[in-house]
Design goal:
6-stranded antiparallel sheet, alpha+beta, 7-stranded mixed sheet, 21 helices, flat
Length: 675
């Protein structure tokens, strides 16, 4: 709609102004021997500044790269922006090249050209090298920074393959300028495509532009005749197809030539001409802002796969003896005879109990059937899952199998009552309140040896539940206790600390998950619910604590107890960093040693230590203090684990000692176990 309105405004302006008006608006004076035209009205502008890449891909351009990583645009909310509103980010663990080609606006080298570009390399993932390449009819021009040989493009030691210098300082924007001698391109040369390449790491590009003293003689953006010559034989995007066809294959057919020429001039003014009347320039800028707003809106909306019904559903059959090429009796979607049948979806207010069965049930019928009053299976399975979550074991132990192969319920009448009660309003909060306020849940988890021998899994609820926390809960509890946790809701998954060499052996060559590039900032402290899970190589911390790899459905996690779990809790980067943050927080708010021990213990376990526990912690702290007072280097190494920086107001040896004390408390059995 906006584009149509703009086109209408331009067409009205063209139709309502004389040639002299158009020439005057463009800054030229018509002469008797050479009448001014829309194309040639403007004299050579003094000072050229053309932006080639900023905020979005050039209008009508196409982009592809050497991996499955699509281009990513960052906004000012994510990163400082040197030019415009967005920057282009590239990330990969190997060679990565983004190729941007085409576009409706030609990229032309002016006189006395200077190419400028803003570049930033990530401080955490520094590339080995980066490269900018211009593809032109005169050949490619390649400019590299860093270890150019890593790019695999041969030696950068010629006029057209230059190593400009070292990588810019990490973490800050640097503007590079390449003069006309470095470019070695004649004025008027068009750049067919741009390539932004790197080897490993993360970098951001912005504000790729060209400056010049004046337009070249054959600049398509300065002369309609030059644009017509440039467009011949090319598929010009964006513009209407009849105009594009006429530009690609000019004809001398006089039929409707005036109308076609008018459309060509209109498109030239809309998109190509560098010097246009002020109102058209404003309209161009408005159109660009509108396109950018649409792109940002589209990027902000997460996409997901959805199901859709086929216009003509496939017929299903009973396969004789299970052989795929031996169809037997035709069957329709339905339910087992032991359960209520599906029925046809009816209008609101109709009596569904007497509705006729549908000729073929749909997914909507199934959805309505799942929560129907006469269908108890959904409520029974749901309350059993919540019971399992609270007590560690479901009333039906096989929570994923309520059929003949599953375990019978230990308390069938209780399961019936809970399911019927839950079905009245489907209120999960009310159900959870019922479960955690029962006498069964509130009783002590202590157990006598005889009771443990008779009922090791506590199926008969003779004691309160005692369950090791799930992997996500252990990590989140440590972050919450330390104050590092980021409670942001929703958004894309994050990639936190992980040892090297886990993704690479199982990643495909051009896969976007071949290399693990850790996130930074507050994102890595988000709740574990939002962690990025590669199914063939899930996060090791989660796997060590029995989290499923999501390759198949898991309704009940097993709980193991291995030495590797203790080793990880003591040495994992996230846990050590959380321990240091907790120690730092306690030390800044409490002065006495006894008070610091009490506050640290209570922060993690919600109770004060008893006399014996306090004495043991004080003894351990004294040992840690003695150790780090004699080894300042080890103290510095410990307090600098993780991306967050330690405070400078606390002595390093004291902070290191309290970090180990916090790490000890975070490793207690009581910390990782729900008693």
């Amino acid at each position: 709609s906006a584009a149509s309105d703009l086109a209408g405004e331009w067409d009205q302006w063209l139709a309502g102004h004389s040639v002299e008006d158009k020439a005057a608006a463009a800054g030229a004076t018509p002469t008797p021997d050479k009448p001014a035209t829309v194309a040639s009205a403007a004299t050579a502008p003094s000072g050229i500044y053309d932006m080639w890449l900023d905020d979005d891909l050039p209008l009508g351009a196409s982009a592809n790269n050497t991996s499955r990583n699509a281009e990513v645009w960052l906004t000012a909310e994510q990163l400082e922006i040197p030019v415009g509103d967005r920057v282009l980010e590239q990330a990969f663990g190997d060679f990565h090249e983004q190729n941007i080609s085409g576009g409706i606006v030609p990229r032309v080298i002016p006189q006395d050209a200077q190419l400028e570009v803003w570049l930033r390399v990530d401080p955490l993932h520094v590339p080995d090298a980066v490269m900018l390449q211009l593809d032109t009819p005169q050949g490619a021009r390649q400019f590299a920074w860093g270890q150019a040989e890593a790019l695999g493009r041969g030696a950068f030691d010629t006029q057209h393959k230059q190593r400009v210098g070292d990588l810019p300082p990490a973490g800050q924007w640097t503007k590079f300028v390449l003069d006309s001698a470095a470019l070695d391109l004649a004025p008027g040369t068009t750049v067919d495509s741009l390539k932004l390449a790197q080897f490993g790491g993360i970098c951001q590009w912005d504000g790729l532009a060209v400056r010049g003293s004046a337009a070249a003689d054959q600049d398509p953006r300065h002369s309609l005749e030059a644009w017509l010559a440039y467009a011949k034989g090319k598929n010009i995007p964006v513009i209407p197809k009849p105009v594009a066809d006429a530009l690609k294959t000019p004809t001398e057919d006089p039929a409707d030539s005036d109308g076609l020429q008018f459309q060509i001039r209109t498109q030239y003014l809309k998109h190509i001409a560098r010097r246009v009347p002020a109102q058209l320039a404003r309209a161009r800028a408005d159109a660009q802002r509108s396109r950018l707003a649409v792109a940002r809106l589209a990027d902000s909306i997460p996409g997901t796969m959805i199901y859709g019904e086929l216009p003509q559903p496939r017929q299903a059959f009973v396969m004789l003896r299970g052989e795929y090429d031996q169809p037997g009796e035709a069957v329709m979607p339905g339910t087992p005879d032991c359960l209520p049948p599906l029925w046809k979806a009816t209008q609101a207010g109709e009596d569904q109990a007497v509705a006729e069965p549908a000729p073929r049930a749909t997914r909507l019928d199934l959805a309505q059937w799942l929560v129907r009053d006469d269908q108890p299976l959904t409520a029974r399975v749901t309350v059993n899952r919540f019971w399992q979550q609270v007590f560690g074991l479901g009333l039906v132990e096989t929570s994923g199998d309520f059929g003949a192969q599953g375990s019978p319920p230990t308390h069938p009448q209780l399961l019936d009552w809970l399911a019927h009660d839950f079905q009245q309003d489907w209120d999960v909060r009310r159900l959870m309140r019922q479960l955690v306020t029962t006498a069964a849940f509130k009783q002590s988890a202590q157990v006598a040896a005889d009771d443990l021998a008779k009922d090791p899994h506590n199926q008969w609820l003779a004691r309160g539940p005692r369950i090791r926390l799930a992997a996500e809960q252990i990590r989140d509890a440590a972050l919450a206790s330390s104050g590092l946790i980021n409670l942001q809701m929703g958004g894309k998954p994050f990639r936190s600390y992980q040892p090297t060499g886990i993704w690479e052996p199982v990643g495909y060559g051009n896969s976007n998950t071949r290399y693990y590039l850790r996130d930074q900032g507050s994102d890595i402290y988000r709740r574990s619910l939002y962690s990025f899970v590669k199914r063939t190589a899930p996060p090791p911390f989660m796997s060590n604590f029995d989290a499923p790899n999501r390759e198949q459905v898991c309704t009940r996690r097993e709980r193991s107890n291995t030495p590797l779990q203790a080793l990880q809790l003591m040495n994992d980067t996230q846990h050590v960093e959380a321990a240091r943050a907790l120690a730092q927080q306690v030390m800044q708010h409490t002065n006495s040693t006894a008070g610091r021990i009490d506050n640290m213990f209570r922060t993690v376990l919600a109770r004060y230590p008893d006399t014996l526990e306090h004495a043991q912690l004080a003894t351990a702290l004294a040992q840690f203090q003695e150790r780090y007072a004699a080894d300042a280097e080890s103290a510095q190494q410990l307090i600098h684990v993780g991306q967050s920086l330690p405070t400078q107001t606390l002595a390093a040896d004291e902070l290191a000692a309290y970090t180990l004390l916090a790490n000890l408390i975070l490793n207690l059995d009581e910390t990782i176990t729900r008693n």
